Amino acid sequence: MRKYLIALLSVVFVMGSIGTAFAIHADIPSESQAVVAKGATQVTLGGELRFRGWSSQNLNQTNFVPADTSTASWYDSRVRLSIQADVSKNTTSLIQLESSTGIAGGVNQTSDTYGWGTLNQKPNAALTILQAWIQHQGSGLLGIPAGIKVGHMPLALGQRQFLDHTKFGDDAIVFFMDPTKEMHIALLTTKFNEGSIQYNGDDVNGYVALMTYNLDNSNTVGLNYSYVSAGNTVATLASTDDGVNFQNLGLHASGKVSGVTYEAEFDTQFGKYFKGVAAEQKFRGYGIFANAAYTFAPVTIRAGFAYGSGDNDTTDGKNKEFQTTMGRDLHYAFIYEYSLRTSATGQALDSSHSGAGGRSTGIANTTYYRLGADYRPMKNLTTSLDGFIIRASKTPSGQSKSIGEEVDLKAAYQIDTNLTYSVIAGYFNTGSFYTTGAAPFNSADKKDVTQVMHALTLSF
Description:
The protein is mainly β. It has a domain of 138 residues. 3% of the residues lie in helices and 52% in strands. It is built from two helices and 23 strands. It has an 18-stranded antiparallel beta barrel. Strand 12 and strand 13 form a beta hairpin.
């Protein structure tokens, strides 16, 4: 009985082998101890404790826009427990549990954290399943290396500009193969949203095909195609239409040439929603992303550009805003992306957390110019400095495209094995975008926003 209780209360960040172009997991810390079960099965236990403190100023925590407000401060915590079972050289499974419930208030509350209790109270949190999957692979199928992975898992595409579900994951079935040493192919079906058996109009189904090819040891190219179909009750869609037919085609590359490290992606979108009625709209968004870096020891200089299309014409039957579906993770600017209401106003595909005027919308209707540097002053200390110019790709008549400029400073110090203290501080110079538009982008207070987050993290 004790063995099963341990299995239910365990967790790890591991990576299945469906390819770095799609499923993203973290490695098991090398210091993890294995628990040997009967037979050939090896069970690895792991987990993580993370405690964060936050402070922000001039950030309205109701509308998430810059405003003349006092300083807000709070703490949150996250607990992860996991177990990985390698039952043979070909079959692996993972169960990962994570704290949930969220904190009562605070601009950055997410469902993977809980707030600190008071006066001798236990934490107001529960454990939920973050990952639970089975993977089998071998060379018996078709005579080439191939496998299948089934369950709840983190998912991402390309350079994570269109789809990044590595925060909480999705239920999926993935079939993958490696026809040659250089080529990786995967086919996926996923259930983004499941309705009841009797009324299935709110089902959201995803189907993905992807391929990556290693040109050499340093350079990789890839493509992916996504088809999303949904019933007529999805988010903002009308109840009388025939639902959603959404498609995204992505091309991406990464590698190193003549000392320059690069990442690039292009996505184009098509399909329809409000399908079959007078209000029918066509998806016509696109996104461009490029990063490059070069090391002048001991400093690495980075530059980047990203553009997600927008739409300021609601009468032409086309939604030209780049559709994204992201988690509350940091991809670009710390304050704008994580804490502020963004310039995205036409998110019809995924409006549950990042819809019209929501947060964490990636490059939807957003243009980024980025310049940064990394420096390691000592073995256990890493630092980085990033500057951003952020603009709305499209705005209504009379509203400025100038979202603002942001500077972020990050530092991480490894105190001991798997024990890290990190700090990120950001300053956001508010642009006229937040004062010249319709509510809530019509503030009379053009206040600049500051935000600091520090964390102590132990993984095992």
